[in-house]
Write a structure and sequence with these properties.
242 residues; alpha+beta; six-stranded antiparallel sheet; globular
Length: 242
């Protein structure tokens, strides 16, 4: 019997403390800036004293840090933990992401499927671009929106598609599976365009490589998609797949 099972083999209650601790990390990640204890408490809808104790525990494990003014940010220990997720995939993908970013002058990133979410696993910003769009590792959004989500869905059998997909999206995903380019505009972040290509490697989660850029007009999406496909071929070859 699993340790968290209750009577009759039913799952036991989840840990509220652990859930709140994880929620603090999510609040900090979504904020894109340092937060006060009061702001964290408000984000969790808990008393300040509870938020403070949770932050102290996370701080002891290096998952958050506080500056002299008491402002809280994500800790560097998270980077070490994230590096262990799909380590081989990240190792083979990062050189290609770097090449893509610097050649196209756009932020490139690797996204993977996690339940019904499209999660950024690694990203690279272009070295010499005047302005670029940051794509933070760990960022997530529903897989049914955005170019990388569509590319990932094209790798799944339709029986595994999430609930809530519109007929238009289903047709778009089928077209991507047949060779169309996965694109999006204003779907995840206003004014941001994305182009993605599906990445399938045995033993790894369904994934996609994508680029994002700002602008009212699209770039040469056909050329971008071709560049992504070249990198995908390199990555798949590194895993012994043609």
């Amino acid at each position: 019997m699993m340790a968290n099972a209750g009577a009759g083999g039913t799952p036991g209650p989840a840990s509220q403390t652990l859930s709140r601790g994880i929620r603090i990390l999510e609040v900090l990640a979504d904020a894109h800036r340092a937060l006060t204890i009061d702001e964290i408490a408000s984000g969790l809808d808990v008393h300040r004293s509870i938020a403070y104790r949770l932050v102290r525990t996370l701080e002891d494990h290096g998952l958050v840090s506080r500056d002299a003014a008491g402002l809280v940010t994500l800790g560097v220990r998270l980077a070490a933990l994230s590096a262990g997720v799909a380590r081989n995939l990240q190792a083979e993908t990062l050189p290609e992401l770097t090449a893509i970013a610097n050649e196209l002058g756009m932020t490139s990133f690797l996204a993977v499927l996690e339940r019904d979410q499209c999660v950024t696993l690694a990203s690279v910003e272009p070295r010499h671009a005047v302005a670029s769009m940051a794509q933070r590792p760990g960022a997530s959004h529903p897989v049914i929106v955005g170019a990388p989500g569509k590319a990932i869905l094209s790798l799944l059998p339709e029986s595994e598609w999430p609930d809530g997909m519109s007929a238009h999206l289903a047709d778009e995903v089928r077209a991507i599976r047949a060779g169309a380019i996965a694109t999006s505009h204003d779907e995840v972040i206003p004014t941001v365009r994305a182009v993605a290509a599906p990445l399938s490697v045995r033993g790894q989660r369904p994934a996609a490589i994508a680029v994002v850029h700002l602008g009212a007009t699209p770039a040469d999406e056909t050329a971008i998609a071709a560049r992504l496909e070249r990198s995908i071929a390199v990555i798949r070859e590194a895993f012994g797949e043609g």
